[in-house]
Amino acid sequence: MITTKGYAAQSPETDLAPWSFERRDVGEHDVQFDIMYCGVCHSDLHQIKNDWFPGIFPMVPGHEIVGKVAAVGAHVKKYKVGDLVGVGCLVDSCRTCENCQEGLEQYCLNGNSQTYNGLEQDKKTPTYGGYSNTIVVHEDFVLSISDKLHLAAVAPLLCAGITTYSPLKYWKVGKGHKLAVVGLGGLGHMAVKFGVAFGAEVTVLSTSPEKEQDAKKLGAHKFVVTKDEQQFKAAMGSFDFILDTASAKHNINDYLGLLRTNGVMICVGAPSEPSPISAFAIIGGRKSLAGSGIGGLPETQEMLDYCAEHNIVSDIEMIDIKDITGAYERMLKGDVKYRFVIDMATL
Ligand code: NAP
Ligand code: ZN
Ligand code: ZN
User: How confident is the model at residue 346, as a pLDDT?
Assistant: First the structure.
């Protein structure tokens, strides 16, 4: 076994603190890599606080993981020692169901293995995430990372990036479309970058008026302060697509009113509390309310390659792992510019 240093929550009531644990030895098809940077996703906070469901504790969060290969198993073909690699939200899946066969491992019908707060495919061994110094993952769930991009700023692509890239691709959002992004945080700022890169006219719908300049710098064409009734009203019936990244409860019916006829609102944000939906909010104007979860392995690699080609990375604020609790507090207040990334050298 490989003794691993990490930061863990021992329960939903305790702050993260140093914790030592064991990872499996490098198997024939495994890649072990030294973690250099790990992004901080709002899902980390939801999960250590049991916002969604009772979690598996101790919990080592982190699913935006990048680093350098330290060892490979005898049968590993794709990677060698020294390669830059990454791991996102998944470390395994059944590989046989129809979704896995199509590269949609995020929707594995037999239950995939999430990078942390999950179980390996033996359905017994808990998984531990990227707030740690090293990780061992089957090569099929390891992604290749270009050395052209700033590595720390690549880390958030592994979740925030793919979670916004995948629905924009699925719904073919691009030239001629008006796209609104709800919430300018980790996911939201990546949605703006991809929306602009794909040729859409992008509007940010934000509760934070002070983010307007940043939104424009990120490439957004328009900015609506959702708490300002007049601005909200003026935007009614104007968007083909709304990508909703909000992390806390909000009135989805109101946002549906901003769609044009045949418009689609896609939820990727995952508030802990459900939101009631009025049928009338979608009947008038034949509107659709949809959802999307991260992305499969082939599409995640496609997104990373697209980012390398188009020079797209996340806007990050690097933190020392000791400051993680303060970072969570800022995240809860919507004060993220626009993704915290932990420098794992500080572990
Ligand atoms: P984040 O960086 O904290 O950003 C969330 C943003 O949502 C905030 O900055 C804020 O932006 C906005 N917001 C917060 N509360 C709101 C409210 N009550 N009403 C309207 N807007 C609100 O979080 P993140 O890491 O981007 O994650 C966002 C959500 O996506 C989380 O729930 C996370 O768990 C989920 N997620 C889902 C997937 C998936 O596969 N579907 C993957 C990753 C994350 P403004 O200040 O601009 O209003
Ligand atoms: Zn995430
Ligand atoms: Zn499967």
Answer: 98
φ, ψ for residue 230, nearest 5 deg: -65, -45
Testing ligand 1's pocket by substitution, the residue of 40, 42, 232, 244 carrying the most ligand atoms inside 8 A of its CB is: 42
- State the ligand closest to the CA atom of 101: 3
Q: What is the pTM of this model?
A: 0.98
User: Which residue has its alpha carbon closest to ligand 1 atom 15?
Assistant: 248
Candidates 139, 11, 168, 137; CA nearest to 63 is 137
Ligand 1 centroid vs 281 CA: distance in angstroms? Answer: 22
Q: What is the pLDDT of residues 49-105, one digit of tens each?
A: 999 999 999 999 999 999 999 999 999 999 999 999 999 999 999 999 999 999 999
Which conformational region is residue 123 in: left (phi greater than 0), alpha (psi within -120 to 50 degrees), or beta? left
How far apart are the CA of 287 and the centre of ligand 2, in A? 28
Ligand index nearest the alpha carbon of residue 94: 3
DSSP string, 230-249: HHHHHTTT-EEEEEE--SS-
For residue 9, the 8-state DSSP code is B
- Tens-digit pLDDT profile for residues 167-176: 999 999 999 9
Give the ligand whose atoms come closest to the C-alpha of residue 331.
Answer: 1
Q: Determine the residue type at 336.
A: V
